[in-house]
Amino acid sequence: MNQTAHELSASRTLWDLLARRAALTPDGPVLLQDDRVLTFGGLQDRAERVAAGLYGMGVRPGTVVAWQLPTRLETAVLSFALARLGAVQSPVIPFYRDREVGFALRESRAEFFAVPGVWRGFDHGEMARRLGAKGVFEAYDDLPEGDPRVLPAPPAEGTSVRWIYWTSGTTSDPKGVLHTDRSLIAGGSCLAHALRLTAEDVGSMAFPYAHIAGPDYTVMLLLYGFPAVMFEQFALPDALDGYRRHGVTVAGGSTAFYSMFLTEQRRRPGVPVIPSLRLLAGGGAPKPPEVYHAVVREMGVQLTHGYGMTEVPMITMGAPDDTAENLATTEGRPPEGMEIRIAGDGEVRLRGEAVCQGYLDPAQTAEAFDDDGFLRTGDLGRLTGSGHLVLTGRLKDVIIRKGENVSAKEIEDLLAAHPDVGDVAVIGLPDAERGERVCAVVEQPAGAGELTLEAVTAYLRAQGLSPHKLPERLEVVDALPRNETLRKILKYKLRERFSAA
């Protein structure tokens, strides 16, 4: 990390970080989208005017404001406006629906809810009204604005909880993860330190800005003073024009993104799919070693993969100068300030400034941390002699599909009520494109009718399950494998059987 970035990483708050970067390079671009350009100075000025508009609506320091918005310039402006006010933000992934959104609004006690209106054919405003949300307002093209002179002073410290992010984990209901400005700055600093980027780079955000990766990536832009292209809807090959036009040098997101870029590269072998690209980077899902080797061999760029979670946005990251073996088979090394402890049962535990403050539910917080203040991740792993982390499995029953956590229990609980389902186990199967795919294995009761994948997904949609959680594979078996004591379903046997198939 260069000297300027190192100094900026000590910023007290996210607003402080933006103000310091805007003073250094006010005319430098920070966010690019289609033909629109937002500079560091422009982001600060616009966010302050929007903060005044929100203040006029009644938003104050500590007010809880939920927002469910796509990856747009306006979303970043609104988020920094809330940071300027010292409000508590509760970002919600745009493709979540009634079940998750309703839970998040209730548990966070949100007093305002920003939505995009009708987006990609779904009416978010109607859902908000259906859920009885408070203070609903649209924040897509237009944002409320006012005179910044009415604003109180910016927040002076960054250690108060001002962010509530949502993760499914292993339970059917989401968990509200509590972050501070300082924990998000620390997480972004970890990412920036590992990737060794410069002011000449051009990044990209093809993931939901409401994901924990949103602030993670934005902090990196502020530290190093380079821009990123925002993609509201990411699909290849359509998005390639944006990458090429803006000269993106760093792309990625997760294993699914690597696979999509590889697919495009294979359409014209030997011709760089993005001529300016030099690095793919990401995390959030398992990365098979063969994907790393294919990217390097066929695309001619480096690939660095990392390990993070909503509770700790950046834990380890591969560095561009790591060995090919380490980049292919490990999750990289932790940065300075991130402590990793491997417990006796092999669980990975974490302590450091980037670690969240806990959960909205105090009982979940008490369970999540050990006596020494280390966060229990539920992941299994080991550290190599060079300090690289290798993940070997998970204690918690969660499927990671395209970088998003999918709770097996939530799907199982819904399917258990289906009349043609006697018992069910939902598992994740390895998938080179998605990281994992969702597979429902069903044991039917006597006399049940034929069950198809189409019927299962239609049923789950009707129950309000988000589309990204829908099973992509259905297996009907005579009997689910169980142990001999408590008759617990042995999911590892199902994974072995259907992974091989």
TrEMBL record:
AMP-binding enzyme C-terminal domain ranges (all copies): 410-484
Organism: Streptomyces phaeofaciens
Gene3D superfamilies in UniProt: 3.30.300.30, N-terminal domain of ligase-like
Alphabetical keyword list: Ligase
A GO molecular function held by the record: medium-chain fatty acid-CoA ligase activity
Highest rank taxon of the organism: Bacteria
Keyword Cell inner membrane (UniProt): no
Transferase in keyword set: no
SUPFAM superfamilies registered for this protein in UniProt: Acetyl-CoA synthetase-like
Sequence similarity: Belongs to the ATP-dependent AMP-binding enzyme family.
Coiled-coil residue windows: none
An annotated GO BP: fatty acid metabolic process
AMP-dependent synthetase/ligase domain: residues covered: 19-360
A Pfam family that the UniProt record links to this protein: AMP-binding_C
Name this protein carries in UniProt: Cyclohexanecarboxylate-CoA ligase
